[in-house]
Amino acid sequence: MTTQPMLVLIAGPYQSGTDGDPEKMAANLRRLEEAAWPVFQAGHIPMIGEWVALPVLSSAGASVFDPLAAEVMYPTAQRLLQHCDAVLRLPGESTGADQDVAIARERGLPVYHDVSELPVRQNVQESA
Q1: Environment class of residue 123 by beta-carbon count within 10 Å: exposed (0-12), middle (13-18) or buried (19+)?
Q2: Distance from the CA of 48 to the CA of which of 2, 10, 28, 64 falls in 20 to 30 A?
Q3: Helix or strand or coil: residue 32?
Q4: Is the pTM of this model over 0.70?
Q5: DSSP 68-103
Q6: Distance (Å, rounded) from C-alpha 95 to C-alpha 100?
């Protein structure tokens, strides 16, 4: 049992396998986001790199289809991993998610492949 909440990076396909189709990318993001609630229920803080990278791109006047995306998308996840305590790797081919796992393992962070593997914080009162 863990007593402190972990910041858990949820990693999986976002652009991979979409051929740039915005609807498929949105569906992939929804799939990543579906894991957020179970991570939260286990007593942890879910994080998805796109939650940070997409607004950064937007504020720069760019999108995931602009060349600037290469300087924002993966680097955002790399920076986030400096603060994360674990990675939840969802199924599906994804170069970025595989990079996240490699970085996590280099840092000695646990990598989970299903939300049921996350340690559950029990009987811990949240402080205000």
Answers
A1: exposed
A2: 2
A3: helix
A4: yes
A5: THHHHHHHHHHHHTTT-SEEEE-SS--HHHHHHHHH
A6: 9
Task: Give the whole-angstrom CA distance, residue 114 versus residue 8.
Answer: 12
Give the range of the structural domain holding residue 16, as residue numbers without chain letter.
8-117
| Domain count within the chain | 1
**pLDDT by residue (tens digit) across 16-52?**
999 999 999 999 999 999 999 999 999 999 999 999 9
Evaluate whether residue 43 is within a structural domain.
yes
Residues 6+ apart with CB under 8 A from 64: 15, 25, 54, 57, 73
Residues 93, 100: Cα–Cα separation, whole Å: 13
